[in-house]
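Q: Structure tokens for this one, please.
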Amino acid sequence: MLTADNFLDNIHASPILIVDDNPINRIFIEKTLQANGYNRLLSVASSEEALEKIILFNPDLIVLDIMMPGMDGFDCCRAIHSQPDYRDLPILIQTTLTEPELRVKAFAMGAADFISKPIYPEELCARVAVHLEKRLLLKNLQLYKNRMELELESARQLQQAILPGASEISYIEKICNLDIASHFRPSSEIGGDFWGMKNLFAHQTAFWMVDFSGHGVAAALNSFRLQAYLKEHSSLAARPGEYLSHLNDKLLHLLLRGQFATMFYGIIDTQSNQLFYACACSTHPIILRKATGKSQFIDGSGNPLGIGMHMYPTNTIPFMAGDLLLLYSDALTETANPKGEYITEKIIKEILDKYKDESANHIKNAILDYLKLHAGDKLSDDLTIAICKRSSSINYNK
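A: Here is the predicted structure, written as tokens:
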């Protein structure tokens, strides 16, 4: 990284390639630059030699004559910029040409600037300094960008790691007689959505969906923190309302002003055929009934987590063999198509009703296919979908 202390040293240490068939001009340019602190200079007498040396020398700037025998400066400039590694390499053209069309041609070939002959030392050094400063700043920016991409990729992998993996899902499906499918896609590299599950007892399995305000790094950091709380053992985990109240107390001391989370937390009890749940301003979960083939909404209202002292009630609803629970983040219903239209909850219900006899994975794919037709690959926010279906006598093939 460049600092104020080493910036000038970096400028003076930048490699500069001088291309001119006139030895007097080459010596003049080289001595002028050396007198002004530049210490990595290479002079060559032709465009052909410049193209040979450029890979080994890897210059940050080229001072190039236009009128040379063999390949002239125009073609040399074009040849250099045709190489991907040197597409942005600044080239200063030294010339006596004054015709506007020739200068336009030089810019079209990739020239960054002109130095008129006869060359004035002060002008040469000033133009060299300007373009080297720009070059180094761009290189530094690219290094920073590369580092950030690596760090974001690491964060993305960490975020994927907090979601239930294939082996965990398979285990829960087997011991709890459930059919589970999920999808997670952040709107940027990382986001604030996540879902999870945990087997509490032989006949009770907890499912949750969380959506933090905003997206990106801040939302992802908050999701990591809350996930740590969810992984902790708590005697309250079997009582959804009390558990949400407990998590709300935790987040009150954790989140910055203006930050909050919405959450659904439910427990599927296969012994009592009930779904016990509590909501904190979540999107409305949907239950697809096996008996009727119709879907119904669960009220997801309630106060968001992290904005005040609140108590959350535990609600109870039947959840029979063959019933399906759909959890989704608001990107599903808040991503507009080019006409400004949205996927309504009615449309989601129609998709569920249409594929009522299909596996959880099939229904998930049907929802995603509809979303893609609706809005392409553009999302308004992070998208998470989790589907849990109580298995009946049907063996679903994923």
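A few notes: The radius of gyration is 32 Å. The longest helix spans residues 121-162.
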